[in-house]
Amino acid sequence: MRLQLDDLGMIPADYPRSFFRVSSERTGKRIADFTTAAEAHKFAIVDSGKGNRDHKVATMHMTGA
């Protein structure tokens, strides 16, 4: 499932502790977050077909309170 940031662009409290982030390899800018690696990789491949060929997928782990 694709995850959404809140209205201020912050990670909401209901985000899973681990998620998968698709970002631009060149700029490091966040593109989208997903609950599974398969969804993130699929999105990166489909989006790269639109001319965006510098996507990477990273596993994100939230820590703290």
Structural commentary:
The chain has one domain. 18% of the residues lie in helices and 32% in strands. The protein has one helix spanning 37-48; strands spanning 2-3, 18-24, 30-34, 55-61. It has a four-stranded antiparallel sheet, with helices on one face. A hairpin with a 5-residue loop joins strand 2 and strand 3 (30-34). The radius of gyration is 12 Å and the shape is globular. The model has no long low-confidence stretch (mean pLDDT 90).
Keywords, separated by commas or semicolons:
65 residues; alpha+beta; four-stranded antiparallel beta sheet; 1 helix; 4 strands; globular
Uncertain runs: none
The shape is: globular
Q: What's the story with the biggest beta sheet?
A: 4 strands, antiparallel
Instruction: Assess the beta-strand content as a share of residues.
Output: 25-35%
Percent helix, as a range, is: 10-25%
Treating each run of at least 4 consecutive H or I residues as one helix, how many helices? 1
Q: How would you write the strand order of the largest sheet?
A: 1-3-2-4
Task: Report Rg.
Answer: 12 Å
Amino- and carboxy-terminal Cα gap? 24 Å
Let me know the number of strands.
4
Compute the number of structural domains.
1
> Helix/strand-derived class?
alpha+beta
Rounded mean pLDDT score: 90
- The H-and-E topology, N to C, reads as EEEHE
